[in-house]
């Protein structure tokens, strides 16, 4: 018999009766409303005056020290494996398309691809906040041994212009056939990696650290803040994360860049006004409390698949970010800030009142107006408040076993993602989370194999340009860019004029087609992969519908190659039909 004086038993009984009733109600009535209702996240009309704020940068010029060298494909693999020679760990997955940068030093001898100190490319954000990829292009042009286009010649027609364009473009082609380039821009990517390295005690290396610092300094705006993206006006999202990053990189609070950044943060309400993703990384670092984060329950992974808001129904990038977030939130992992003088200093710097006096629960819904693209829908606010009640009473009581099992499944799922992507991960956000979680899963030991494999793949996301060392929005856009270049060559009927360029491009595309499906793909919500093309590399392994279409279109039985075998064509067609 259930006693009225036993709250745990009452909650358990309520759950036992309530869940079946909810399922029945969904099947009988609610699902019709669900499909017809107004979406909770519907953005509505354009935010008033949202385009009036523009990014503004000081007129300043800087230059990154020379000494960085680009490597790709097999050479890139070899350089990484040489650095991990003592562990014996080899990189897995197809080498084609992999891009990495390594520091050779300013006195690297005869290596002409590095350039000289007096011709180091400069960067001025007030002229253009985007880099011109001058370091990469200069190195590719120096390596080119073939004929060069006549810069003084003016084409007389479109075909002549195309020929001259390809005569230059082939000089930028990488050895494995792809075209590389800067794929960065968002300012909220690299801070996650910096936090992960700091919490795990992993050295960044002086040159990498200095390059990251240079990048953050270069993109600080005249008002002291940083944008969510390098081109947009300052936001609290970009500013709080960039400020914390500079501090973790060793920059003093009294430094001019930090002083201006902190002034911007405090003038706009302090760290508690940052959006949810920033707050999440702050909680991991120990400079924000989990009570101030809206629930990210791992229990949702245990729902039946037919449930309308099971996480598997999310867009894959949202799902794969929700995954590590749900694990960290459910386990309440946090860095030991009280034993870390820098984190204790950040607790004092980021808030307008003493850290111990902050009402964290009251901050769950706070977001600075400049970061609010659309107001939080009342229904979403209500649901988040219900989940807050669940966090306080149910998941720490009668339903705590659900939380434990949900976190266990999330950990299993993350291990599968690591295996399926050769530790590259689907994107830079979950990559940074996986670096941290693989360390936690390994007992916080730096020697843990999964953690070391993640460290081997960090370079896949880092790019070096004249504005500094940055984290890209993917591990590159290799397949996407190469497929269009090869298509343009074929459409212009210039394959015979540039046979080596065409053949190399085709070979890259052939090597990048995904040739197998993932193990236990159904268990971990993966679509069929075999026959598709990714956005970047085969080692990344996630097929994409438009990349698959463009990859196939680039295969012409002409100077670009003999075309794919019939079996490979059937696999491509089958995948594309299933994705429709």
Automatic annotation (TrEMBL):
<dbReference type="Pfam" id="PF13249">
    <property type="entry name" value="SQHop_cyclase_N"/>
</dbReference>
<protein>
    <submittedName>
        <fullName>Cycloartenol synthase</fullName>
        <ecNumber>5.4.99.8</ecNumber>
    </submittedName>
</protein>
<feature type="domain" description="Squalene cyclase N-terminal">
    <location>
        <begin position="172"/>
        <end position="466"/>
    </location>
</feature>
<dbReference type="GO" id="GO:0016104">
    <property type="term" value="P:triterpenoid biosynthetic process"/>
</dbReference>
<comment type="similarity">
    <text>Belongs to the terpene cyclase/mutase family.</text>
</comment>
<dbReference type="InterPro" id="IPR018333">
    <property type="entry name" value="Squalene_cyclase"/>
</dbReference>
<keyword id="KW-0677">Repeat</keyword>
<dbReference type="GO" id="GO:0005811">
    <property type="term" value="C:lipid droplet"/>
</dbReference>
<keyword id="KW-0413">Isomerase</keyword>
<dbReference type="InterPro" id="IPR008930">
    <property type="entry name" value="Terpenoid_cyclase/PrenylTrfase"/>
</dbReference>
<dbReference type="GO" id="GO:0016871">
    <property type="term" value="F:cycloartenol synthase activity"/>
</dbReference>
<dbReference type="InterPro" id="IPR032697">
    <property type="entry name" value="SQ_cyclase_N"/>
</dbReference>
